[in-house]
Design brief:
It is a single chain. Helix 1 runs parallel beside helix 3, helix 2 runs antiparallel to helix 3 and helix 3 packs antiparallel against helix 4. The protein has one domain. The chain contains 4 helices and 4 strands; from the N terminus they run αββααββα. The relative contact order is 0.16. With 164 residues, the protein is an alpha+beta fold.
């Protein structure tokens, strides 16, 4: 299906762009309408919309030092692309998962550069036990890395069965 290299690149960039656009639209929507201590219950006891300006990295760790995180994140994105560029285009699964991961990293990096912080707005919780607020870019990264781990585990399991 994906024999032509240029088509593979187009497919990857299209998905990356769509994921980035969706991340940007949701963050813009939340920023425009829900600033100033906003909290909207979506699913009682489980899911709320909130507005959080996160100056840290994942889960608000290491708040502040935005200049450092901007450069560090960009460096990781570039290293990741250089290191995985051949694997990205091997099949549709890798193209989709890679576009999720790079869209997540770029979405949060763009936020840091433009706003000086990342806009988080999804508050998942079980009753009063809250997970740190996150956004679609964070979800993209998580889903992408979970897919890679699952593929790696399944692939090594298949390899182990073949050798025994």
């Amino acid at each position: 299906m994906f024999k032509c290299y240029l088509f593979k690149v187009f497919f990857f960039i299209l998905n990356l762009s769509l994921f980035l656009l969706l991340d940007w639209i949701t963050k813009s929507w939340v920023s425009s309408f829900f600033r100033n201590s906003f909290n909207k219950q979506l699913i009682p006891g489980f899911l709320d919309l909130v507005f959080v300006e996160n100056t840290g990295i994942a889960f608000g760790l290491f708040a502040g030092n935005n200049g450092f995180w901007e450069y560090f994140t960009l460096l990781l994105i570039l290293i990741g692309f250089i290191f995985f560029r051949k694997k990205i285009f091997t099949n549709i699964f890798h193209m989709l998962v890679s576009s999720l991961i790079f869209a997540g990293a770029l979405g949060n990096w763009i936020d840091r550069v433009i706003h000086g912080h990342v806009i988080d707005f999804i508050d998942a919780h079980i009753l009063e036990y809250h997970w740190p607020a996150f956004n679609l870019a964070d979800a993209y990264l998580t889903i992408g890395f979970v897919c890679i781990l699952l593929e790696s585990a399944l692939s090594s399991k298949r390899t182990f069965k073949k050798t025994t």
